[in-house]
Amino acid sequence: MAFTSAAELARRVQSRDVSPQALTEASLARIQAAQALNAIVSVNPNAAAQAQKVHARVAAGEALPLAGIPVTVKDNINVTGTATTCGSRILAGYVSPYDATAVRRLVQAGAVIVAKANMDEFAMGSSTESSTHGATLNPWDTARVPGGSSGGSAVAVAANLTPVSLGSDTGGSVRQPAAFTGVYGLKPTYGRVSRYGLVAYASSLDQIGPFARSAEDLALLMNVIAGHDPQDATSLHAPPAFQVGTPEDLRGLRVGVITESLEGNTSGVHAALSVTLDALRGAGATVGEVSLPELRYAIAAYYLIAMPEASSNLARFDGMVYGRRVSGHDVTEAMTLTREQGFGREVQRRIMIGTYALSSGYYDAYYSKAMKVRRLIAERFTQAFRDFDVLVTPTSPFPAFRRGEKTSDPLAMYAADVDTVAINLAGLPALSVPAGFETVDGAALPVGVQFIAPALHDELLVKVAGALEALGAVQVGGAPGY
Ligand code: GLN
């Protein structure tokens, strides 16, 4: 059951071939067996009861698209009755009284939320090493990181703990860990999936996105979680219509490779990209190149927008309402001590840089300049989409790096996001497709190729993925031992 797709499992539950309870138990057993990977930070105490309910609904004849499907959810997305820690000490003891909209929709569709996944503290990072729960390991080589910040959600799917999971992507946090672990990871168009119940990091960039092992499962999940939500003011009116594509869909598709993303890649990344482009050409797509020179400013602009937004969003964690409180002689001291002891180093660094970039006298030089760059980048993408239906880059210039390799050098960690952050700045949808492997020190490490579509064309990305899958150009899963 662990290796079967969500779509197939839902069909079996619907035909009473397997029970939701059995699926939940199987998933919990996998979680137990894979504890060494540290992908899961807590198990949903209500999972068995949820499975029971799905069983009753199926028995009553309800048609549920996700009947009995076990799902892992990143620990910054609220699930009723489970702890939400965001990988931080500061939220210790906080139990969510409500479901995020995406979670509510999953449960409504018959899914069972079995567990919460490990992540970089407050989703700030690219390696899932900065969590208070410790680092998550990459199942392909446990000396390496699974990527981040949604590393636990990626590993949950890559190591077959659950067939699908949810992560969040502010600058690459779904796509990059998907690439590092050999699964699909989709960052939807900004506004396509409700952010209600997602703990905010950088509100103008954050999106919830799914991990899956097949295009069919991506479509299944997106058709459930996407759609307008009155509880998120930035939510769009764009009903999802995801379908799996066929190679036919690639005929005449205009594919543009972003020139700037062709530099600085490892040979394995380069090879995976070439193989993917060949498959596209073979199926009748035209492949060209397009230069977006402003992309060289993307990382600087991204961090100068993400950090100020974070500094503002994280002001609410002062020990007064949520989680842990360190007491002091007065309110100021209590708040200071709470934040000093509750937040890790990277989060503190970002709050300070973010506050600085917003402060009077520096606002124009940093934040407001970054916003101008953001606009330029968005316009460049719009121009590129006049000539191309989809754009392509590697998801990351290199496969999974070693644990500890970048922890002492924040700028090196930020640079890992070179291929992903611009997409968030422009609000576009992008999908990382598992496209091959690079052997490093004797271990086969997955490599991802990123497809980018115009806003609201998320459906096209899943179509292309399905087509590539049918052509045998996608290489999902199979981490040794899992
Ligand atoms: N690595 C990027 C950051 O640290 C992106 C993280 C994310 O998408 N949540 O901000």
Helices and strands in order:
Elements lengths: L5 H9 L5 H14 L6 E4 L3 H13 L10 E5 L26 H8 L3 E6 L33 H8 L5 E6 L5 H7 L2 E4 L19 E6 L2 H11 L28 E5 L8 H16 L3 E5 L7 H16 L17 H12 L2 H14 L5 H24 L2 E5 L15 H6 L5 H6 L3 E11 L2 E10 L5 H13 L12
Parallel strand pairs: 2-3, 2-4, 7-8, 7-9
Antiparallel strand pairs: 1-3, 4-6, 5-6, 5-10, 9-11, 10-11
Describe this structure in words.
The protein has an eleven-stranded mixed beta sheet, sandwiched between helices. The protein is an alpha/beta fold and 482 residues long. The longest helix has 24 residues. It has one domain: Amidase signature (AS) domain (Amidase signature (AS) enzymes), CATH 3.90.1300.10. It is globular and about 70 Å long. 37% of the residues lie in helices and 14% in strands. Bound molecules: glutamine (GLN).
Short description:
This protein has 482 residues and is of the alpha/beta class. The chain has helices at 6-14, 20-33, 47-59, 101-108, 151-158, 175-181, 215-225, 267-282, 298-313, 331-342, 345-358, 364-387, 410-415, 421-426, 458-470; strands at residues 40-43, 70-74, 112-117, 164-169, 184-187, 207-212, 254-258, 286-290, 390-394, 430-440, 443-452.
Question: What is the fourth-level CATH superfamily?
Answer: Amidase signature (AS) domain
CATH class: Alpha Beta
What coarse outline follows from CA principal-axis ratios? globular
Q: What is the CATH architecture term?
A: Alpha-Beta Complex
**Distance N to C terminus:** 13 Å
**What percent of the residues sit in helical stretches (DSSP H or I)?**
25-40%
Q: Indicate the proportion of strand residues.
A: 5-15%
| Element-by-element helix/strand order | HHEHEHEHEHEEHEHEHHHHEHHEEH
The computed structural class is alpha/beta
Low-confidence stretches: none
Instruction: Summarize model confidence as the mean pLDDT.
Output: 97
How is the biggest beta sheet arranged?
11 strands, mixed
